[in-house]
Amino acid sequence: MIILTIQNLHKAFGGNVVLKDVNLTLQDHQRMGLVGVNGCGKTTLLKILAGQEQADGGSVSLMKGIRVGYMEQQYAVQGDSTVFEELKRVFDPVFAMEEKLRALEEQMAHASETELKRLGEAYTRLSDAFEKADGYAWKSSIQGVLAGLGFQKEQYDQPARLLSGGELTRLCLARLLLQKPDLLLLDEPTNHLDLQALDWLEHYLADYRGTLLVVSHDRYFLDHVCTHISELLLGTLEQYEGNYSAYMGQRAERFEIRMRAWEQQQKMIAREEAIIARYKSFNREKSIRAAESREKRLEKIERLDRPQDEHQVRFRFQAKRRTGDDVLFIKDYSKSFGNRTLFQNVNLHLRSGDRVALLGPNGIGKSTLLKCLMGEEAPDGGVVRWGANVDTGYYDQKQESLHPDKTVLDEVWDAFPRMEQSDVRGALGLFLFTGEDVFMPIHTLSGGEKGRVALTKLMLRKDNFLLLDEPTNHLDMDSREVLEDALENFEGTILAVSHDRYFINRFASKVAVLSENGVKEYLGNYDDYQAKLQWELAQQGQDPRFADMTRTEADKEKKKVRLAKEQLKALREAVRQAEKTITDTEEAIAAQEARMALPEVYAVPEQAAAAAKEYQRLKDALAQAYADWEAAEEALAEAGES
C-alpha cells in the first residue's frame, strides 16, 4: 500500500538548485535510507515532507489519515519540566482516556439497565483504545526508551533544560519514538549515541510497525535497519531495493550499464558524422542529399547524457620503510584528570601489520590514550616502548594541528617545503581541492574539508604506523569507502578510535575495548567482537536483549526465544531422522541388489517379480527420503541456522 508519493519536486535557494526533479514512492512498512553527499538536499527533502519547508514546484501526496513524525535537530524544552515529564506529555491523550474511563465507571454505577448496555459498549471501545495506546504500560515504555537511548536513572528527574545539546537530541528522538507516528522521518538519528544505544535503536527500528525514511551516514545502521535505499544525486532521486551493501552493488552496476550505453551511442554518432562529412566532401547533388537525410535522422535521436557521479576523493597510503615485528608495547598505562580516573592498568602489544580498533564508552579516554602516545598529554604512570623504525602518523578528529589563518595550500606546503607547488596542488587535487579552492583559509572550511586537508598531510608523510581518531567523522559515504580502500591496501600498522561500525568491520583484525581497569582484546572485526560479547554474556546467564524491557515484556520475549529454540531443535531432529532414513534405505537397496544377483531368485517367476517390486519400492523410498531431507534442510536454513 502506497502511503507517500513525490512527483517532480524541485527546490532552490537563490541560484543554488538543491532538488531538481525528485520522484519517490514509499510503501507501508518500508524502511528507506536516504543517502547522498553532504549538501545534496537530504535534510531539505525531509523538511518539505514534514511541512517545515515549501517546495518550489512538484507535488507531495500522503495517504489520508497518516501521522507524520519528524525528528528536529533543535529541541525546545518547556519550562523547568524534568526529562521524565517531557516524555510523559506524549501520553496526555492516554491520561484523558483514563479520566473518561473513570467517568464512565461512575455513570455505570448509577445507570439504569437500558443505559448500562450503552455505557458498557462505550466503555469496552474506550478500554480497547486505552490498551492499544499503551495506557497500562506508559511508564515502562518511557523507562525502556530512556534506558535504550543511554539516559541514566538519575537523569529522569533532572530538569531537561540542563541537558547537553547531544542529550537534548536524544530526548527529542525518545519523544518521537514514543509517539509512534505512521511515517517516521529521522535526520541523522545515530548522532550522539554510543554503541550500546545504537544497537538498541537498530533493533527498535527493525521491529517498527510504521514506515521509516531516514537520513544517515552510518552505513552499519543502514545495513541493519533499511529494506530500501534512495540516493539523492545531482538533484534527482534514484531508488534501490535492499540495504546499504545491496545498494552499493546495484549502483555500480547501473553506472556501468549507463556508461556503456552512452559510449556506444557516442561511437554511433561519431560514425554517422564521419559518413556525413565524407558524403559532403564529394560535393555532388546525390551525396549531399544523402548527407542531409542522415543528418535529419541523427537529429531525431534522443541523446543520452553522460552518466555523472559526484566527485570522490582518490588516494592511498604508503609507508616509506618497514618496521620491525614489534611496533608498540604499552605496560600499566594510566591517566586521570583530578579525582576522575579515565583508565588504568592498560596493557597493549601491537605487532607489524596489526589493525586494531579501540572501542569503549564515551568519556573513557580513548582519544586521550592516543594523545598520550603522541606526547600531547602526559600519562600518570606506565611505560611505552616503540619498536624499530616506527614512524607514527596521527589523525586528530578535532584538527587542532591545522592553523586557522593559513590557506589550504600553505597548510600542506609548509609541512612539506621541499615539494614543488605543482606536486602539493596535485596531492590536494586527490582530495578535491582544485583551482581557487587551495587558497581558502582553514577557518572557513567545513569539518569534512578540514578532515580532507589533514588526510592529505597524513598521506604525504608516508608513515608506517597510523594513529587515527574518528577518521570517518565529517566524511561523506563515498569518501569513507575510499578511505577504507586506502587502509585495506596499507602495508603498515593501524590503531584507530572509531564509532563507525561499518568502518571497523572493513579495516580491523582486532578489537581492543578500553575500560577503567584496562584493555580487553578480541580477535576479528566488530561483528566478531559482538558475537563473542553475546556469548560471554550468555555464559554469565545474562541476555542484553531483555535488559531494557519490563518483566512482562521480557517474559514474552523469552517465551518467543524458547519457542524458537524448540522449533530449531525439532527441525534439527527432522534433518537427523531424514539422514538416518537415507542411510538405512541405501543399505537396504544394496542388500536387495546383492540378493537380486543370486541365480536362484529367478528360478521362480513370482519370486523374481517380488524382488523387482521390492527393489523399486526401496528406490522410491530413497527418492522420498532425499526430498524430506532437502525440505528439512531448507526449513532449518530459513529458521536462521546455517
Explain this structure to me?
The protein is an alpha/beta fold and 642 residues long. It folds into four domains: 1-77 and 163-242, P-loop containing nucleotide triphosphate hydrolases (Rossmann fold); 249-300; 326-539, Rossmann fold; 551-638, Helix Hairpins (Orthogonal Bundle). It is 48% helix and 19% strand. Strands 5-6-7-3-8-9 form a six-stranded mixed sheet, with helices on both faces. The chain has a six-stranded mixed sheet with strand order 14-15-16-12-17-18, with helices on both faces. A three-stranded antiparallel sheet has the order 2-1-4, with helices on one face. Strand 17 and strand 18 (518-523) form a beta hairpin. Helix 5 runs antiparallel to helix 6 (165-179), helix 9 packs antiparallel against helix 10 (285-300) and helix 18 (551-596) packs antiparallel against helix 19. The longest helix is centred in the last third of the chain and has 46 residues, at 551-596. It is globular and about 100 Å long. The model has no long low-confidence stretch (mean pLDDT 86).
Which consecutive residue ranges, at least 5 long each, have pLDDT under 50?
none
Q: What's the CATH topology label of the largest domain?
A: Rossmann fold
- Class by helix and strand content? alpha/beta
Radius of gyration, taken over Cα atoms and rounded to an integer in Å: 33 Å
Beta-strand fraction estimate: 15-25%
Number of extended strands: 18
Q: What portion of residues is helical?
A: 40-55%
The CATH architecture classification of the largest domain is: 3-Layer(aba) Sandwich
Sheet with most strands: strand arrangement: 5-6-7-3-8-9
Task: Write the CATH homologous superfamily of the largest domain.
Answer: P-loop containing nucleotide triphosphate hydrolases
Task: Look at the structure and give the CATH class of the largest domain.
Answer: Alpha Beta
Number of H/I helices: 19
Instruction: State the end-to-end CA separation.
Output: 33 Å
